[in-house]
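Entry 14. Two folds queued back to back today. First construct below, sequence then structure tokens.
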Amino acid sequence: MMGQLAEHEGITKPSATGIVGRLLEKGLVERRSDPSDRRSAIVAISPAASQLLEQRRRERTAYLASRIDALGPEERAILERAVDLFEEMFEDR
């Protein structure tokens, strides 16, 4: 599991192990035995971390909405075009 996580994140396995350890200490992830492989563990986000992420998403959305509301018509048009370009870029993936 740590090897897969490390590879996915582009970091070393020891780095992934350390990060997961710190997240475990903070109660942000949970480690469970992998029923299909006793040598492995499954790491999952904890309920506390899910709540924290949801709170941060709401805060970020409110912040962005307030910033967009403050834009003038020309700035909004530029932003809309930029969003369209980003969407086109990611459609090619």
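Second construct, same run, same settings:
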Amino acid sequence: MNALLLNPLLTKLDEEVTGLRLDNETQKVVVTVYADDVTIILTDPTDIPLLQNILYTYEQVTGAKT
């Protein structure tokens, strides 16, 4: 996956998804990325439809398949 196409997705996920809270709620982890592997961390079930919408929009804009 091209890094230029991936960065907007990572930014959107960080802004919108709850993720895993660390360090007394001041930091969070939403996505881990290594090479072409992306792991999205969800801890709130209500984030699932939000994630689906973000991924659908990303597919439509970039032509990529998730």
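Quick look at the second one. DSSP finds two helices and four strands in the chain. The mean pLDDT is 88.
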